[in-house]
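Reading a protein record of the kind used here takes only a little practice. The record below shows the convention in full.

——
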Amino acid sequence: MSGYVTNSLEINNKAGQLVVAMWKDLVELRDYHVWLNDATHDQTYFTSVGVDAATLADLRAGIGDLGNPTNGLYAVAHGAFLPLGLSNYFFNAKKLSGTTYAG
């Protein structure tokens, strides 16, 4: 047989890789959310490094939707928050990845 061969080990390994990648990404998003909202990172700090108020608001909203450990996707994935209805956790985050990103 030529070409790519799929077997049980490959299927299991791929599933594990995807889960670990998602887990790590959520942790990175949580950590970045905490960093963006740390008291030392106020508007004065962000202005000094070239980030204007509107951009900072987009960053905090987008990363917060995904990485907020209280009510973001991170919290939902860890069983710490139950949304009250339909939730689009990419509503704000899509602004950070381009206006045409549909996921």
About this structure: The mean pLDDT is 92.
